[in-house]
Amino acid sequence: MTRTETSETKTSADVVLKVVDALDHPHGNRILRTKVVAGVPPPVGDLKGSRLHAHGPEGEEVELRLIGFALFGGEPSDERIRSTGRMDLIVEGGSDVRSVDRTWKLHLA
Question: Top-level CATH class of 3-108?
Fold first, then answer.
């Protein structure tokens, strides 16, 4: 099996995150506090710069780009994400980024 065919890579594409809180970032971006509700997230190093598809409760869709991690609870690590299921993300996505709020779901692109 090659690296692209590992079970972790297959489940990474199926990762679903639920937004549990959303905050405005001082530089015009958005901080999304999320909880993993399905799948296994890829390593932290692979997440930065990735694309996310946000889906709202009324069918809204916004494409986001992960630009970093908020450090509320300390430096993110693979182990911490696996044990808590939580990730605090800093995302950008144009003018629509402000509409992403609690109850939205995020899917890795």
Answer: mainly beta
